[in-house]
Amino acid sequence: MNPQENKNHSFIFDLYRQMNHYSLSYIYRGGFSIDLSNKILSLAETNMANFSESSSTKKKVYFIMLESLQNITRHQDVKTQESTDSSSFFVIQRLENDYYITSGNTIENKNIDSLKSKLSKVNSLDKESLKEYYKETLSQGELSTKGGAGLGLIEMARKSGNKLSYDFKEINNEISNFYFQIKVSAPDAETASQDINTDRLTWIEGLEALILEKNLNLIYQVDFTQESLISILSMTEGNIGNKEDLALRKKIFNIIVELSQNIYKHADEPDTEKEGKSGILMLGEKNGEYTLTTGNLILTKRVESLSASLDKVNKANFEELDNLFDKTIMEDEKKGQKGAGLGFIDIKMKSKNNIVYNFSQIDADYSFFEIQVKISEKK
Asked: What class does CATH assign to 31-214?
């Protein structure tokens, strides 16, 4: 493994450690459409059902996600779409009983002062004042083709009961990145926060820079189950080549299935009460080459056997892989279960590339297992 690969794997491991205390992290960077927004909303609904959230929390989260996504798809200035550094992004994370919803898109610098004024005004008001301000804005505010005059901001603050966190970072003399975050607390949480905590927003800003540097489009951290695979495939669909290139899309979908199954069937989960297995999946693309990366925990005592299995697959040519595939199936049938080795063979056969892997020992019992697979449009 060369130094650059080691650097990449260190990034994956560090990101997993930073995100693992969240019960859900979904991060998307790229082009947004109504169809994609609907899929993100559907993903949130599915996960909130899994967490048995109250009806009140579901409605608040759904509304704020909808407003945030509309801010991206409708309010982004047209001229900024040509900037290579102006990809929009969306993040939803669940920490304990709180949801953090973050969005980012570019904005023309000439519009920043007006937006800052609206945000500052909303943050200065208490619950009753926000209600009155909403009525006042509704009756007096000028409507445009892009929506109401700050009505969405007011409603997000009212429904969340928390202050709005935001930041602007200049890209050039004409445009800047606009970062926006809001927290939704459970109904039995303490009263609305009177302070604006920017720590989590600052972390997201740094993460977005790393995502851009490493050409990532999607990061999905959740407890992997058979059911979660449906959400993963749905969210990756919009990031895979031209819809006409069915062969490439099928290949990537199949590898995503194998990588996800490797987590929820073969990962070692310290919390035996959990239904799923903790893991992280990433999708990136550069110049027609797609990179799929997963990471999960395994028992340290399994590192040697997994390394041997992966090395055997990587050293085999494609004729030898066919024989190895048949041999592995026979061995698995004797054991009465499908082992990880068969999945590794399938991944190499479909990707036509070796599997890059790494183990980072956490303690005497557990290690972090990373797999990276590259799929090219040309293969």
From this structure: alpha beta
Only one residue has tokens 């019960």, namely 23
Radius of gyration (C-alpha) of the chain in whole angstroms: 23
Question: Residue 77: pLDDT above 60?
Answer: no
For the chain, which residues make up each domain, given as ranges? Answer: 31-214, 263-376
Nearest Cα neighbor of 153 from 170, 139, 171, 166 is 166
| 269-315 residue pLDDT tens | 988 888 889 999 999 988 889 999 999 999 999 999 999 999 999 99
The secondary structure element, H or E, covering residue 133 is helix 127-140
Confirm if 24 and 47 have CB atoms less than 8 A apart: yes
Contact 220, 11 (CB under 8 A): no
8-67 residue pLDDT tens? 556 889 899 888 888 889 999 888 888 888 888 888 888 888 788 889 999 999 999 999
Evaluate the CA torsion angle 250, 255, 256, 262 in order and state its sign. Answer: positive
Compute the distance between CA of residue 120 and CA of residue 42 in angstroms, rounded to an integer.
32
Q: Which two tokens stand for residue 156?
A: 């997000």
Through-space distance between the first and last CA atoms of the chain, rounded to whole angstroms: 23
How would you classify the pairing of strands 165-170 and 216-224? Answer: unpaired
Contacts 24+ apart (CB under 8 A), 205-211: 205/167, 205/169, 205/179, 207/15, 207/27, 208/29, 208/89, 208/104, 210/11, 211/27, 211/29, 211/89
Q: What pLDDT does residue 49 have?
A: 81
Instruction: Tell me 173's DSSP state.
Output: S
Banded model confidence at residue 83, pLDDT cuts 50, 70, 90: very low
Q: How far apart are CA 285 and CA 292, in angstroms?
A: 9
